[in-house]
């Protein structure tokens, strides 16, 4: 089994990298990709925990914004973690999350929902990439909502009056950097309309020209029609088709391995990196 999209408490998941690795081993996975938001800080502890027959594809989920303000997430896999320009881009994206969070908190307070940055920091694991899920957890802690899912459904979704966009690379720039660092780029849940505005079919050709390698077709936030449409785009543009869980531990309902990538599609995707970087025990 191959799952190419997972998160740990180095961003907005709840499992540590070691816990994620152990879970994947215990459930019989052959390979998982570690793709925390805008950070590679979980790579080393995940490698230390690796054992048995599990392989790791290390990466990151990069927060992007199109020129017309649509939020896009780009999975970068198998890139060189020591690539200086890539790490600078990730750091700049992380830094942009702080003023964004402060503005969201300000808007929530103005709307009558009491929360502070201290509340958010109190529920965020030390060193984790700051994100809306941590604001959601603070809202739960303060009794404003009962769960992270409720926080997103009611207050933190992309069309909410409390939503704030952030400074981020364009999808094309992120793809270019991933490829420059030797990795492969897969666009994550691109038709997840419940999250807000999404790309159109016409938007995929420029991404292909920028070096996009694949599309995450099979994801819980895509309905059947959206999966069929994305598979057609992937076929027409000769892109790899992936499936993944977007696992966040107890932070989301997503179960590890609820969507998978086929061995053949993975082998093609891996072959498009500039060198083999899969980690084995």
UniProtKB/TrEMBL annotation:
It holds the Pfam family PHP. Transmembrane segments: none annotated. GO terms for molecular function: 5'-3' DNA exonuclease activity; 5'-3' RNA exonuclease activity. InterPro entries: PHP_dom (IPR004013), PHP_domain (IPR052018), Pol/His_phosphatase_N (IPR003141), Pol/histidinol_Pase-like (IPR016195). Residues 2-66 form the Polymerase/histidinol phosphatase N-terminal domain. This is Unannotated protein. It comes from freshwater metagenome. The lineage of its organism: unclassified sequences, metagenomes, ecological metagenomes.
């Amino acid at each position: 089994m191959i799952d190419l999209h997972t998160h740990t408490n180095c961003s907005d998941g709840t499992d540590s990298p070691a816990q994620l690795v152990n879970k994947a081993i215990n459930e019989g996975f052959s390979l998982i990709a570690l793709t925390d938001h805008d950070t590679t800080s979980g790579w080393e502890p995940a490698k230390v925990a690796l054992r048995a027959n599990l392989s790791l594809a290390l990466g990151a989920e990069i927060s992007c914004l199109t020129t017309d303000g649509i939020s896009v997430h780009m999975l970068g896999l198998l890139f060189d973690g020591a690539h200086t320009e890539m790490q600078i881009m990730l750091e700049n994206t992380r830094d942009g999350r702080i003023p964004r969070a402060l503005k969201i908190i300000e808007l929530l307070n103005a709307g009558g929902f009491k929360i502070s940055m201290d509340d958010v920091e109190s529920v965020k694991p030390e060193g984790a990439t700051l994100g809306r899920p941590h604001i959601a957890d603070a809202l739960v802690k303060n009794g404003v909502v009962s769960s992270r899912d409720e926080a997103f459904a009611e207050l933190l979704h992309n069309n909410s009056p409390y939503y704030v966009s952030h400074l981020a690379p364009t999808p094309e720039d992120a793809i270019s950097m991933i490829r420059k660092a030797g990795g492969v780029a897969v666009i994550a849940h691109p038709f997840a309309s419940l999250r807000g505005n999404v790309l159109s079919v016409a938007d995929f050709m420029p991404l292909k020209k920028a070096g996009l390698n694949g599309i995450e077709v099979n994801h819980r936030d895509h309905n059947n029609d959206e999966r069929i449409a994305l598979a057609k785009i992937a076929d027409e543009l000769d892109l790899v088709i992936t499936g993944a869980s977007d696992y966040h531990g107890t932070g989301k309902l997503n179960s590890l391995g609820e969507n998978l990538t086929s061995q053949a599609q993975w082998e093609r995707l891996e072959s498009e990196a500039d060198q083999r970087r899969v980690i084995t025990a």
